[in-house]
Amino acid sequence: MTPDGPLADVYAGTLDCVHCGLCLSSCPTYRETGRETSSPRGRIYLMRGVAEGRIPLGAVEEEAWLCLGCRACETACPSGVRFGSLLEKTRASVPRRGWAGHLEAFALRRVVPHRRRLRLLVGALAAVQRLGLDALGARLLPRLRESQRLLPPIPPRAQRAPLPPRIPAEGARRGCVALLEGCVMPELFGPVNAATARVLTRNGFDVVVPEGQGCCGALQAHAGDASLAAGLAERNLRAFAAARVDAVVVNSAGCGAALREYGDWLGAPGAELAGRVRDVCEFLDEVGLAAPPGRLEARVCYDDPCHLLHGQGVGEAPRRLLAAIPGLELVPHDDAAACCGAAGTYNLTQPEMSRAVLARKLASLAAAAPDVIASGNPGCLMQLRAGALGAGLRARVAHPVELLDEAGVAGRERP
Ligand code: SF4
Ligand code: SF4
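Above: the input record for the complex with iron/sulfur cluster. Below: its predicted structure, written as tokens.
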């Protein structure tokens, strides 16, 4: 049939689903609700029904936004359904409504892609944190509680400075990589970017940080704003096109997954850039990590970011790197591959489901009793940190490259 409903552009993709149900047990919202409509198969059925004109568009709205966009269903699906793409196209037809929708659209259009504005905002938030006004605000305005709980301590200004445009390799030079700084990463996780550059240079790679790069467009794409996402991707394409490097290295799983989709967003030039993208752990694992010279005595649970495991198919590389650190004990936990409930802005817009999803993971982490929870995505780091604090876990939360960096520094400090 020729689809003529509002979701005609997702119709062909929905036909890939053979209704086998193999994805159901890996879907966090299905696990929580037990409802077919809150499962991948149920959502695809709704999308297809809308596309065929059998179901009104409004019927898919709630489920389009209750879905975490974690893409665990893609990993489980034997039929190759590209659920993330179907979801983004569906969301474009049912934009988020109300104050949350307006606020999200404003932040994703007017603040996040503009580095100076984001920097000003984060600077103001840092002052608010220093004065303790964030806790006061959260007490007075319940709507602020979730954001206050999730926002990590903002690093001092010096640690939020942009990285130098070129950082030379240490020792024997093995190659040259370009680093994506990202939008949120330098502001809230500047030390992770610095640690990434140190680990790469210690492993023999020149690191270039191309000027003109910026926000990757992932959050905008997940929110259904494909044209803004493509515009941001074009900016990165221009910035990275001229860099003569072995790889474009990314330390944020959400950004890496987005860059790897630039071919879908921008055609052949985007595909060329996408082909050079590597997550930092994947890259170090591929080229062979120089053995960290220092020890790190810690029990570490690695927790898979969805957009690294399901979006990029990278799961073993971070574990291999961590296991290579002398003294580090890598401890498995049962819920590592499931979403933590962060999912971009999901933990702010769907706080109840986000907390329910996180609770399973925290129970699994509590049973494993790690000293450190490691994960490679800023949203996951924030969610896990806030969750661990709230649950009284004594574990700190860190990016895997921070642990590699700490082991490197520890080795240098040895007499
Ligand atoms: S993306 Fe995640 S939450 Fe959404 S349907 Fe797939 S598994 Fe479920
Ligand atoms: S596993 Fe794939 S084909 Fe099977 S129901 Fe889920 S989405 Fe459809």
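Notes for the reader.
The CA atoms of residues 220 and 299 lie 36 Å apart.
Residues 158-286 form one domain.
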